[in-house]
Amino acid sequence: MEWGSESGAVRRHRIGGERRDGPAAAPQLEREALAQEPLADACGGGARTRKRSGEGSGSASRGAGTGLSEARASLGLALYLLALRALVQLSLQQLMVRGTAVGHRGEFDARRARDYLEHITSIGPRTTGSPENEILTVRYLLEQIKLIEVQSNNLHRISVDVQRPTGSFSIDFLGGFTSYYDNITNVVVKLEPRDGAQHALLANCHFDSVANSPGPENPWLVQAYVSAAKHPFASVVAQEVFQSGIIPSDTDFRIYRDFGNIPGIDLAFIENGYIYHTKYDTADRILTDSIQRAGDNILAVVKYLATSDMLASSSKYQHGNMVFFDVLGLFVIAYPSRVGLIINYMVVMAVALYLGKKLLQPQNKTAAYTKDFFCGLGITLISWFTSLVTVLIIAVFISLIGQSLSWYNHFYVSVCLYGTAAVAKIIFIHTLAKRFHYVNASDQYLGEVFFDVSLFVHCGFLTALTYQGLCSAFISAVWVAFPLLTKLCVHKDFRRHGAGGKFIAFYLLGMFIPYLYALYLIWAVFEMFTPILGRSGSEIPPDVVLASILAGCTMILSSYFINFIYLAKSTKRTMLTLTLVCTIAFLLVCSGTFFPYSSNPASPKPKRVFLQHVTRTFHDLDGNVVKRDSGIWINGFDYTGMSHITPHIPEINDTIRAHCEENAPLCGFPWYLPVHFLIRKNWYLPAPEVSPKEAAHFRLVSKEQTPWDSVKLTFEVTGPSHMSFYVRTHKGSTLSQWSLGNGTPVTSKGGDYFVFYSHGLQASAWQFWIEVQVLEEQPEGVVTVAIAAHYLSGDDKRSSQLDALKEKFPDWTFPSAWVCTYNLFVF
Fold it and tell me: pLDDT tens digit string along 621-651?
């Protein structure tokens, strides 16, 4: 039989199990011996080598039964990843270790900062417009600023300005809405030399709070942070993820960026998002050492910028975007993105040369390798796809039986359930390929093939991310460059001695940097996303999201370990162990063993619930009341809805599910923010009417017909410090302009318009106008508007029914409750 006509199964390494007698055996052995050497030289043994198992243990080919011990390989890789995870945890602990000794003059003093923090939070909830925020907190701040002014030296001048601005803007956050603020209190402290200054640097934060609750694009700012920050913790990855909109959150900095064109650095604590904006979000949970590190960084960067020429000559430091990332919180690496572009494409070229030398050799030398490489690529992609499908099936089933978020208070449950399933499925697919497709193939040869496949995949990601102009592509560059260097370094030992202890030690050492940094980033991903999934609304199954993230992490972390599946003698025990762990976790989750929430003071993970005692009044086109009701409107902020609440409060059940008012904007309910598209399941418990002392008043001031065939409606509203205004145009009408934002109306998801209004103390009546372009007159009018008044402070915030219901909620919940009114009008 000629070599070129062999079947796919026979064309792989003949390692044993085949016996040839007679004259035909000698020519075949001679052909194999002649073919072996040139094939082995094709880029370091990447091409197929042929040698029988009986021809010597030191050959480049390894026989079946001479591979790695499964127990050693599995245990070794598990311990390796655990050791890296321990290093990551150690580095994270260092982020909270005190940097600079406190009390030194000219240095940041965390103890004084904590005194300020505790005093402000002791005032209680400080919502905008409340006396606690507008009077008590402002008074305290001014007192402390005065003390600082008295203690300051004569070289500087301190001036204080208490501002109460009014303004409006529109943003695309939460699907899009418009904000209007009136007479809001700002405290501005100006520190400057006695003879004045030409340039300014702003350090900004907010001192208000929510009800019921106590990244930079300019390269010169990155350079300042890199040069000055004493305890750096920053990454362009976080910046690009945040800017992508994946995380449903935003910060005050965007106002300076979008409307003031002011560059800046956004700093925030990210740990323990479970308690964010809840009753547990208290000063004592912020470590003094964390305050010290943050203060050290801010003060150092402010001093650096204030004393450098960057503010005056920032254009000299422009290099386009910057690639920047910290190394385990020890230091920051930063370089211009154009340099990153060069590095990335150099890495891509190195891979192209490495793989090209194997794939582009004369066909008679590399035909088998090329086929096996692309088959291996297909098998790898199939294993990833089936792994993702498997965990998604499990996640969907868990969601359907009402056991979502079982991992919310026990994160290890998600790893045992979804992580083990993902790993087991990947191993299973590759084991099938090894057994039935790569029949009689050398384990060493297959190890090389699948290393090359993983290298090719990561190189593909590197190319795609670089082409998209993402600075985060540096991660893929790390995941290509270091493995390639490792491969080139261990290749000779691998050819001579196979997958021995020395090879494994050097291989894992070479993977140290990419795997350590990957685990570092994966920690950040779960630290941010896991708490968010507990407040992501009723429409997004959190188990599906988390299972997908875990599957993706598994694909990344397993990519350069796939070759060990082919180097190992067997994978049966590993798959059995993983399947057993997954099955046990699955059964425990299905039985409800793991409760999602916790009121443990050491590590609370509460369920968030909004309770709004509302009286709704609907008017027709003639101003007559056509409907009026009152109740407590209940919203759960996660996918489980009220399923865990009903056993404790039986009256909150599916019989009182709220029904959408189809003809009213945002379904006719008093949304505080336009999150209606995230929370479609809510409950409406009948209750007596509310009668706030400071009742909201809404009236039509004027109705004008414009020369361009539109209707201009002017309104005036008075009421509490927080109100929401909603607009829905009727068929044949469009909202063409208004006196809010930049004049162009911005729709929310669903097509309605949402305006968030807030005011400070002693604000005048809110007067504004909207202009409706009427294309076709309708008997039911041209537009429907509604106003919701939210009472977030004072006596009007509470009602006896609301207090009674709130008391019934179990201690593992955080019910945020207030009174509101809702009035709808048609014009």
Answer: 988 999 999 999 999 999 999 999 999 999 9
Amino acid at 283: A
- DSSP-assigned beta bridge partners for residue 825: 785
Amino acid at 456: F
Element (H, E) at 727: strand 722-729
DSSP letter string over 378-427? HHHHHHHHHHHHHHHHHHHHHHHTT-TTTTSS-HHHHIIIIIHHHHHHHH
HSE (side-chain half, CA atoms, 13 Å) at 173: 19
Q: How far apart are CA 78 and CA 423, in angstroms?
A: 12
The shares of helix, strand and coil residues in the chain, as percent rounded to the nearest 5, are: 45, 20, 35
Longest dimension (CA), the chain: 109
Backbone dihedral region for residue 470 (phi beyond 0: left; psi -120 to 50: alpha; all else: beta): beta
Beta strands in 677-812 (DSSP E): 682-686, 697-705, 710-718, 722-729, 733-738, 753-759, 766-774, 783-791
Select from 93, 94, 92, 112 the least CA-distant residue to 102.
112
d(CA 326, CA 234): 6
What 3-state class would DSSP assign to 483? Answer: helix
| Residue pair 684/667 in contact by the 8 Å Cβ criterion | no
Residue pair 440/9 in contact (Cβ under 8 Å)? The answer is yes
Q: pLDDT tens digits for 114-144?
A: 888 888 888 888 888 888 888 898 998 999 8
Whole-model pTM: value is 0.84
Q: What are the φ and ψ backbone dihedral angles of 453, each rounded to 5 degrees?
A: -60, -45
C-alpha to C-alpha distance for 429 and 678, rounded to whole angstroms: 37
Residue 534 makes CB contacts below 8 A (sequence gap 6+) with 274, 405, 408, 542, 596, 605, 607, 608, 637, 638
DSSP category for residue 657? B
Reduce the DSSP state of residue 100 to 3 states and report it: coil
DSSP state of 733: E
